[in-house]
Design goal:
The complex is a heterodimer of chains A (257) and B (781).
Chain A lengths: L6 E3 L4 H11 L3 E4 L5 H6 L7 E4 L9 E4 L2 E5 L4 H6 L1 H6 L1 H7 L5 H6 L2 H7 L5 H9 L2 E6 L2 E6 H4 E3 L2 E2 L6 E7 L6 E7 L9 E8 L2 E7 L27 H17 L2
Parallel strand pairs in A: 1-3, 2-3
Antiparallel strand pairs in A: 4-5, 5-10, 6-7, 6-10, 8-9, 11-12, 12-13
Helix pairs in contact in A: 5-8
Chain B lengths: L13 H5 L19 E7 L5 E7 L1 H4 L4 E6 L32 E2 L5 E7 L2 H10 L1 E6 L25 E8 L3 H6 L2 E9 L11 E7 L4 E6 L4 H12 L6 E4 L15 H13 L3 E4 L2 H7 L6 E9 L5 E13 L10 H9 L8 E10 L13 H19 L3 H8 L8 E2 L5 E2 L4 H11 L3 H10 L3 E13 L4 H4 L9 E7 L5 E5 L8 H13 L6 E5 L16 H28 L6 E4 L2 E4 L4 E4 H10 L13 E6 L7 E13 L6 E11 L6 H20 L29 E6 L17 H17 L9 E2 L3 H7 L4
Classes of the chains: A alpha+beta (257), B alpha+beta (781).
Chain lengths: 257, 781
């Protein structure tokens, strides 16, 4: 269980990183927190020609206010996002969701940008971003692009990010007056979700997004919209099971607090 | 006399291990000189059943750092093949196995080629370059259909996949027909495996100049392995040295003849250079033994007064592709059937066993071998009977548990039962459960789905020589201890029982301290080296305290006698007038006459002070085998409180209680932690763990994200109380302790879930109990 051979670069600026991505394209893999990529390498399920380690790039891990919302750098570690008072105040959904993300040791390394760029269908953070109506900012040598979260996730491990782009930050709008709740069903604490729900509610309005149900999270604005879900299938979690759990979680989320 | 036995002391080696100073196999520094060390990586069959031939090995051989690429034919003449001819199970079908499969792989993960290279990464690179042509063969993996007509043959030429079968007991149809009540239960047990923190691994150093093998390996029984290596590699036994320093867990995984381990040793012999093989987690989960795959159906007959009349069980066991050598894979099923009904008094017993070969990794002995299966079917029947009679499960058990006056007793299943404290344990459990019934009732009234389950257990521990000796397996039931009085007054103990993290060295230190009359902190126990101590069994079937402890006692008594004779000679008195306390020799008046350190110094350095003819032997070796009692039954009872979420199917374990009697507890702290560890393992089997294969026979539990061991967040508080009924046939009085926690936890958890779901009319019949299965049973999905 050792990684295959790869070249390794550790740029110290975003510009150099983008040059490497422009040059190597699909053959390059970006190493952020490494909590998914390193196991994939060691299992030899990924074999990039070049690993671009962005852990030494300065200035990508900030967490700050913007208007009544938040700006979170792509390299912000889960543990820092989870502990940040601004996040607790303006996007409590993220704090709740990160409590379900693996274990402390993994949250110490894992990054927000890494999780969004990977787009694991069971991952909590993409669903949160869709629920919150966040904007995901990517950069390449050609410039910056801003993606609505609802447009960014395309399916299993597929996003709008081009191979020459880096996710650089996430802009989370303020949602004053919205109650936010994250609920999840997993076999063990910290396991990948079977189904997770990111939910924001204000009066009769709701914004819901699920992880673990469809290949990519999408915004649902009513309970009836769940009827249109087309859940994924797996041996241990057939579609009807995921659909059932989605309904249970939404019911609980709406009744919550 | 027992100042140290029974004390709650931490393990002496805890400080070293916590400080990161453990010496596990992969901590072995690379060999210096001798041509350097090669790292092994295996090409393993990706198919459950396939013929294959290599179309190109040269590309792999040309890869950077590669020392050799070996296949089965390279090892012909270096390492013999083996079968598992068990004299106790005549007719057991188990074709010959080889270190590397020759032309046909019979399970996914079976090693078919071995690459040796400067690093493991380079070896893995080269494995990817081996060109193989695979021809997939029909595979039989599912247990339920393995013996059906038309099932794919696990090996070519078999008339069926039946590996072995037997019938035990006597006809009881008339008893069941006349019974006031007959309850039935069926339980499917998923394959599980032991997940040791340290995977299997070895560093084999063949020295061609003398024709000797030094093997450092993570293993439970160095002496047994020494015999296998000598036999299979064709080397004199004395030229094989097996060393197990720190071993990071065993659970029964590390005591079999594994193809990959034999291949690595054979490669070292073939190439004359050290070979390092450290299994990674994926190959551990895939190719370590699995265990406990059974479909058990049971019936229990009860008379009108609520007394158990008899048990009738049918067990279909999944063996895997081969019967594991040397202990056989069938033994687990016989252990399970032997444990059926064991806590209770009953008159009739019948069991039918069929063992099915499968194109899956072989199964073997895992902690509490078979007992969790026998316990679960028994206790499911007991709860069903109590429910049918409308009485409290504990009341039904009180009526039927074997009483002290009933013992010794030989049950209809042939189990000899003695020294069991069922009723004392039951009373203790009832005290611990005070208030829980009310808690459950209040919770249910508030709409919660709570369930309380109980399971009584008997575990047959520390088997004597007949167990394996009669089957022809080279498995020792005796153990040796060598004790030396050092000039510091400390006692060095070298033991043939193995330390796997369970703490037996600490237990032996406390036995030696009492036997010798020294402080336990002055006793230093080492184990795990065939060169350090004569032969012994190692670690299996909870025997360290019961057998190794007795050997330590004998060695201590013998060494003390030597010391007292020397002291008497020096003090011009007789040994009978002297005694040893806390490392000092005292006379009848209690006067401190001299220290053991001084005696050792005189004997070793100033022998002229001793009278002529006095030749004290400050090293003594004692071996112990129990002459009576085929095994030592222990007993206990457990309870489990769960909450089921009817919407999600999730089961949460709220609390777990254990009362346990392992005879004399050498160190109650360590016994309790062994019990807790066993309970955690048992709860894992009940709710999470499964080695799963998909419909195509592909193993899908190859990582620790997929093979779900319980984590601390899921575990409840586990309350443990000990009752001590010392074994009367030995001096120390210990019975086995290390596995019993695992015996009854699955049964207690299953009963708890079924208690919770009883009002829904739902009975769960498969372990692990998955949330999806619960929802399906409830008709929610």
């Amino acid at each position: 269980m050792k990684a295959p051979r790869f070249d390794y670069a550790r740029p110290s600026t975003v510009e150099v990183a983008l040059e490497l991505l422009a040059e190597h394209g699909d053959a390059a893999a970006v190493l952020a927190g490494g909590q998914s990529l390193m196991p994939l390498l060691n299992l030899r399920m990924a074999a990039p020609g070049l690993l671009v380690d962005i852990n030494r790039m300065a200035g990508l891990d900030g967490i700050g206010a913007e208007g009544d919302g938040l700006v979170i750098g792509a390299m912000a570690r889960h543990t820092d996002v989870m502990a940040h008072p601004l996040v607790a105040a303006r996007a409590p959904l993220l704090v709740q969701a990160l409590g379900h993300v693996a274990h402390a040791a993994i949250r110490n390394r894992g990054t927000l940008g890494g999780s969004l760029a990977l787009a694991d269908p069971a991952s909590e953070l993409p669903a949160c971003m869709v629920c919150l109506g966040a904007r995901i900012v990517t950069r390449s040598l050609a410039g910056k692009r801003v993606h609505e979260a609802g447009d960014f996730f395309h399916g299993l491990y597929a996003t709008a990010r081009r191979a020459d782009e880096l996710v650089v930050r996430v802009e989370v709008p303020g949602m004053p007056g919205w109650r936010q709740v994250f609920l999840e069903v997993a076999r063990r604490h910290g396991d990948y979700a079977i189904v997770g729900l990111a939910l924001a509610v204000r009066g009769a309005e709701m914004r819901a997004a699920f992880c673990g149900v469809e290949p990519a999270p999408r915004l649902l604005r009513s309970a009836e919209a769940l009827d249109g879900l087309e859940p994924m299938a797996s041996d241990d979690a057939p579609p009807e099971y995921r659909r059932h759990l989605a309904r249970v979680l939404l019911r609980r989320g709406l009744a919550h607090g | 006399m027992t100042a140290w036995i029974g004390r709650r002391l931490p393990r002496a080696e805890t400080r070293r291990l916590v400080a990161g100073r453990g010496r596990y196999v992969d901590d072995q520094a690379a060999a210096r000189g001798g041509g350097g060390e090669s790292h092994a990586a295996f090409l393993r069959s990706p198919y459950p059943h396939a013929e294959f031939h290599f179309t190109d090995l040269e590309a792999a051989r040309a890869m950077p750092g590669v020392d050799a690429v070996l296949t089965a034919e390279d090892l012909v003449g270096v390492c013999r093949g083996w079968t598992c001819p068990d004299l106790v199970y005549p007719g057991l079908v188990s074709p010959e196995q080889h270190p590397l499969a020759p032309g046909r792989a019979a399970y996914q993960g079976e090693p078919v080629a071995l690459v040796l290279a400067s690093t493991r990464a380079e070896a893995e690179d080269a494995v990817e370059r081996i060109a193989v042509e695979w021809e997939g063969l029909p595979a039989c993996t599912e247990l339920a259909s393995a013996l059906e007509p038309g099932a794919a043959s696990v090996h070519p030429g078999l008339a069926s996949n039946l590996g072995w079968s037997t019938q035990l007991g006597t006809d009881l149809d008339a008893v069941f027909a006349a019974a006031a009540l007959v309850v039935e239960a069926e339980i499917g047990f998923a394959r599980v495996t032991g997940v040791t923190l340290e995977p299997r691994g070895l560093v084999a150093r063949w020295d061609p100049s003398v024709g000797a093998l030094e093997l450092r390996i993570s293993h439970q029984m160095p002496h047994q392995l020494q015999l296998h290596l000598a036999e299979l590699l064709g080397v004199d036994q004395a030229r094989v040295r097996v060393i197990c320093e720190d071993v990071g867990g065993g659970f029964g995984l590390k005591m079999h003849v594994y193809q990959d381990e034999m291949a690595a040793c054979a490669a070292s012999k073939l190439l004359g250079r050290p070979v390092r093989f450290i299994a990674d987690r994926m190959e551990s989960l895939m190719a370590d033994i699995h265990a406990r795959e059974h479909i058990v159906r049971g019936r229990m007959a009860v008379d009108a007064a609520g007394r158990i009349l008899g048990f009738d069980v049918d067990d279909l066991q999944g063996l895997g592709a081969y019967s594991i050598y040397p202990r056989s894979s069938t033994r687990e099923a016989l252990s399970a059937l032997h444990a059926v009904g064991a806590p209770y008094k009953f008159g009739h017993y019948r069991a039918r066993l069929r063992c099915a070969l499968q194109n899956k990794v072989p199964t073997g002995q895992l902690r509490a071998v078979g007992h969790p299966i026998g316990c679960a079917i028994t206790e499911a029947l007991v709860e069903a009977a109590a429910r049918a009679r409308g009485e409290a499960p504990l009341a039904f058990r009180r009526r039927n548990l074997l009483a002290g006056a009933d013992q010794p007793w030989t049950s209809p299943s042939g189990a000899r039962l003695f020294g069991l404290s069922h009723h004392a344990c039951l009373e203790r459990l009832e005290a611990m459960l005070a208030g829980v019934d009310a808690e459950v009732a209040a919770g249910r009234a508030a709409g919660r789905c709570l369930g309380l389950g109980v399971a009584a257990l008997v575990e047959f521990t520390a088997p004597g020589a007949r167990s394996y000796g009669a089957s022809g397996a080279p498995v020792a039931a005796m153990d040796s201890v060598a004790a030396t009085l050092e000039m510091s007054g400390e006692v060095t103990v070298r033991a043939s029982v193995s330390e796997l993290g369970q703490g037996i060295r600490q237990g032996l230190a406390q036995v030696m301290a009492d036997a010798m009359g020294v402080d336990a902190g002055r006793v230093h126990v080492t184990s795990g080296d065939t060169q350090a101590v004569p032969h012994g069994g190692g670690a299996w079937a909870s025997r360290g305290a019961a057998i190794g402890g007795e050997a330590a006692w004998r060695a201590g008594v013998a060494l003390k006698a030597v010391v007292l004779r020397a002291a008497a000679a020096l003090l011009q008195t007789v040994p009978e007038r002297l005694r040893v306390e806390a490392g000092r020799v005292l006379d009848e008046a209690g006067q401190d006459r001299m220290g053991l350190d001084e005696i050792a110094r005189i004997v070793t350095l100033r022998g002229y002070e001793l009278p002529d003819g006095v030749q004290p032997q400050l090293s003594v070796t004692a071996a112990y085998r129990r002459e009576q009692d085929a095994n030592l039954p222990n007993n206990g009872i457990q309870a489990c409180l769960v909450e089921v979420d009817r919407d999600t199917g999730m089961v949460r374990v709220l609390r777990h209680w254990v009362v346990f009697d392992c005879g004399r507890a050498l160190n109650p702290l360590l016994v309790e932690e062994q019990v807790r560890g066993g309970v955690v393992m048992g709860l894992g089997e009940a709710l999470w763990e499964a080695c799963e294969y998909d419909a195509a026979g592909q193993f899908v539990s190859g990582t620790l994200a997929d093979y779900r061991v319980p984590m601390s967040a899921e575990m409840p508080d586990i309350a443990v109380a000990l009752v001590e009924t010392p074994y009367e046939g030995s001096v120390v009085g210990a019975k086995g302790a290390g596995e019993a926690g695992a015996c009854a936890a699955p049964a207690a958890a299953l009963n708890a879930v079924n208690d919770a779901l009883a009002e829904d009319g739902v009975v769960m019949t498969a372990l692990p109990i998955t949330p999806l299965a619960v929802l399906r049973a409830l008709g929610r999905v």
